[in-house]
Specification:
There is one protein chain. The chain contains eight helices and two strands. The protein is mainly α. The chain has two domains: 66 residues, Rna Polymerase Sigma Factor, Chain: A (Orthogonal Bundle); 68 residues, Winged helix-like DNA-binding domain superfamily/Winged helix DNA-binding domain (Arc Repressor Mutant, subunit A, Orthogonal Bundle). A two-stranded antiparallel ribbon has the order 1-2. The longest helix is centred in the middle third of the chain and has 26 residues.
Length: 148
């Protein structure tokens, strides 16, 4: 529990805290031959969890810097750029499978097969979920969920 509590305090997100705590224990298992077992490994786990959480923030900051466009693309009206979809509200209306099928390829560059393996479904199910999700997004955008 102390490892999970620290991870939750550092990430402020339940899913991320789960990931950090689990990865800390996986690393403990990986380095089990090199760790001094004369005392409890809680200190090692806490330091590892802190480092993992910090690495997540560094990667996120780096990815955001790399993905941020320097300005509007040439030939695009700035008024068009000001119109945006409140993606968080819209994406929460999709199922978890639909969100993953749309976001993982777009954001992480995963293939359909990689998404299918991560979700434990077939590639056809991922393609169907992505299609349903895109249709829902189109319907939601058409109903005035676009803010501008």
């Amino acid at each position: 529990m102390p490892v999970y509590r620290l991870a939750l305090a550092l990430t402020n997100d339940l899913a991320d805290a789960d990931d950090v705590a689990q990865e800390a224990f996986v690393r403990l298992w990986r380095f089990r031959d090199t760790i001094d077992w004369s005392g409890p490994p809680i200190g090692w786990l806490l330091v590892t969890a802190r480092r993992l959480a910090n690495d997540r923030f560094r990667r996120l900051a780096r990815d955001l810097r790399l993905r941020r466009p320097p300005g509007p693309p040439p030939g695009v009206d700035p008024a068009t750029i000001e119109r945006f979809v409140d993606l968080r509200a819209v994406l929460h209306r999709l199922t978890a499978t639909e969100r993953a099928a749309i976001l993982l390829p777009a954001v992480e560059g995963w293939s359909t097969e990689q998404v299918a393996a991560a979700l434990g479904v077939s590639a056809g199910a991922v393609r169907a979920a992505a299609s349903r999700g895109r249709a829902k997004l189109g319907d939601l955008a058409g109903r005035g969920n676009v803010v501008g």
